[in-house]
Batch of 2 targets.
Target 1
Amino acid sequence: MKRLVLTSILLLGRYAVLPLVGLAGGLLFIWLLALDHSTRFVLATAPIMFCVIAAAVALALGILFVPARRDRSNVLDEATAPALWRIWRELDPAFAKPRRSLRFDADFNASIGEARSYAGIFRQHVTMTVGLPLLMILDERAIRATIAHEVAHAELRHITGSGNLFDFLRACENVLHYANPDRTITGRIAAFLLRAVLEWVNREYRALSRQNELAADRRAAALMGPAEMARSLVLIAGGAARLRELVFAPLETDMLGAISVPATPLERISTQLAAIRDHDALAAAAAKTMDEEPMEDPDSTHPPLRASLANLGYATLPAVDPIEAPAIAQLLPPDAARDLAARLDAEWRKLAQTRVRLDG
Ligand SMILES: [Zn+2]
């Protein structure tokens, strides 16, 4: 039953709230019919019915006004990043330029998402986001494997499901926009129910998302070979652990009690680049992650490294080729790389400035 509800949410998106609206309509109909027979019952239940109707109207309105999800900031057009676009085109059998956008951000990660135009009826637009640190630390081979993994998510329609889930959650949250929980009883009840629903849906979704990750890896492995995919998984796990150790932990310490904004994460990555990319340390960090990670983490959207490697046929951590030249030098023109880093640094400084000021 739970899976059925989740499946319909993933298929229908925001329209998955329609059965609830229908149910409320049905209740209203029965209630109006009862008006002839037992006036006392109708009067006694009137406050409940008004709440139900208000909630149904709010839900129905919520469907229409779900905010657009397409993030148009930090776009990487084809003139800026021709090599990245070329890799995407090579690996994506459904590639269609007008329906593809490429973005960059400051994460050591890549992701893919989908947005539809008004009310979610029109064609999907796929946006892939590649983190600048990923390009700075990994090599072109690992970036290719990562892009193949993201394309597999799109091919297997995982992103349609997550897009629909996102729409559904936003449509539900919209209820509170029309029925204020601080001022109306309907809103208070809706907020209470909503919290329960959101918690449940999110938990189920994280479990599904972990399965999707494994499915995307298998699909990408059919194209790139399991060894290449396993290599990228090991390098990303090791790289993430090294980044935590060499960049983010010291940054946290520096932020505490800082009176001026410390060096940005990207500046720190540049300074520590050789240490982060050091093969032996990185492989050791990946091995440590593999040993320490729990076998099943209900809070994570990603499976542990051990499960991802087992999925590709590796029972133990495979020995992988060291990282070659940083992908950024091959995939982005030097001016563009500098410019993108400067933009991310400026964004980060602006956020950090408020935090330093608040703490100080
Ligand atoms: Zn993924």
Target 2
Amino acid sequence: MRTSNQARRPFMGKISIITLLITLAFATAAFSQTGMDTARVPVKLNVAATVEIQPPTAAEGLGVTKAVAANKLQDTLLIFLAKTLAVSYNQQAARLNIPAVAKSSAGTVTLNLSVLSYSEAEISLYTVGGKRVLYGNVSASSAANTVSRPNLPPGTYLISVKGTDDNAFTARHTHSGGKLIVNAVFGKVDVIPFGCSLARKIGNGEHSPATCSGCSSLKKEAIASALNNNWTISAKAAGYTFDPLTFTPIAGMNPLKTVTLSPVQADTSGFVPEALGIGVGATASEQRFVWHSDDAAANNKSFVRIFKGSDIVSTDSGDAGNATKGKRFHKVTSSNLSPNTEYKYSVSNNKTDWSRKYGFKTPGAGAFKFAVAGDMHQGYIPDNGNGGRQRAITGWDTTMNRIAGHNVNFILDVGDHVDTAKNDDFYKPFFAPAPMKNIPMAVAMGNHDIDDIFIHHFNLPNTAKSDKVMISYNPMTWYGSYWFLYNNVLFVSVNTGAYLLAVYQNDTDAKKMTEAQNHIKYFDGIIEKAKTAHAGKYDWLVVYHHKSTESIGPHATEEEIEIYKKAGFEPLMDKHGVDLVIAGHDHLYVRTKPMKAGKVATGGGTVYLTLPTASYTKFYPETSSLIGDHIAKYKKNNWNGWPGYGVVNVNGKKIDAIIYNYNTTGGADVGLDTLSLSK
Ligand SMILES: [Fe+2]
Ligand SMILES: [Fe+2]
């Protein structure tokens, strides 16, 4: 129980200032008013991570979160130390219903005052930044019990409620008159998804479970209660663990906090899957899993358990079959995942022995981030006197961990995962980086990957085997060509990696061209099918594949690329209005200006990206004669030992990308190039 004299308690949130000001209008001598301070908390990390600082009460959602980038491992987080008023009535904790949040139509938010809460009150909705976007006086005893406004963009908002009526709380309290004043009460409400019916009692740290169907996003309430000094710092990075710190913030600049994350320990108990990886699904609500196991004779099967918190939300079964070297491959797809949700998963071959849990997170309905990477070449054989194979392993591991620091939703890959397609052992270091178990990957097939082993190691959506129109020599093409929809972007992989002109070297030029045209026809069908399947559901169309047609490296002028350019690869991108084509194969970085009909275009066109190697091998030189006016940016070959990758932010009709590279002898990521597209 709290009295009104227990006033000086820390409380956070910019919104506090606003509400306190409002509250003053109602304040009586029963309350003492204080101000609010801010605290700057400097943090220093050992790896890129997302840092979160939370107050000690059930104020979840009102903490601050900040991504600390790999190239800036020291940063400062700002938190609010509001000292706010206590809530009391007759020396008892007051209680208050938070209004129900409803959406009556797209973008319209309605706050309903529930019956038996209080008879009159002001309710307001604020942005997290403190701007009031909805305000009204409501009365539960009259028809005017709702406030509403249209055109509210999806996002996170704070609800503030103040009641001033002495009839309030009659359902809870018997009192003999007098004025009840309720101080700032905050509930953080994520209005995505709408359609919730929520009515929660809050007050003095007590809250009943939400009555909510189809919405789990109402955060715990924050109220001026039970605050103490044990604020928490936590940090998250895929592949790392962290034990939260507690600390006592002070107003102004705080002492530096050192945040050290530890790599996830190797599996030590339960079933240990080999080469476990997760892949993108057909949409963002689907997740795909793949692993290998020994002992094919045991006829093992494939199961995945999905957890939300400690609850098992599904147990899914999938396919298994014999792979190379006495191994067995296992593939499972889990569907109907909720957006913006952290899940854990565990895999098993027999539904009895389960692996340890790994995690992944589904995206929200809006903006998302993906990394781009390729040409890892695990198993790279030439040593060159400097440990080439080990450099490929450590380079890829380092790149993956740097990617994980950006908290991407998935990785888009452009192929050449291994140096020798037929050596299954080379997939071990490919799947070895810890983030490979936490970040889904959408892979393309490179020319170094052409083997059934590729099919056994990746669980891809929408593969179109039945659509094959050619492929007289290579059954791989159908598997490496597929698509998926991720929020408002349609991604299509066309398998140029499997197109090897060497197969036709004894054929006539006419036969070579016919087969190249057959490939283009096949790619056309794949893109058309993807577009038809998701018509009206995407803003952007991205094609990713292996053999770049717009590079300036040594592969760019090879006949096998020239011939499928002549057969119509880029006109195909024009035909379908592809916004971005992402490729690799040449192990250097190139970005073109928007292009159409083979020329630089104004007012739209296709941008072609060629990615550098994401490991530490095979740095190819540029050919200066290929650097025409259509090249917007490239990286000269003075960067041996500098792997690279990119991070692409998609936010509605805007795409912003940064390409990074880094020196494997140490040092932070360097921004190599940026790309912005908008519609
Ligand atoms: Fe390559
Ligand atoms: Fe390649």
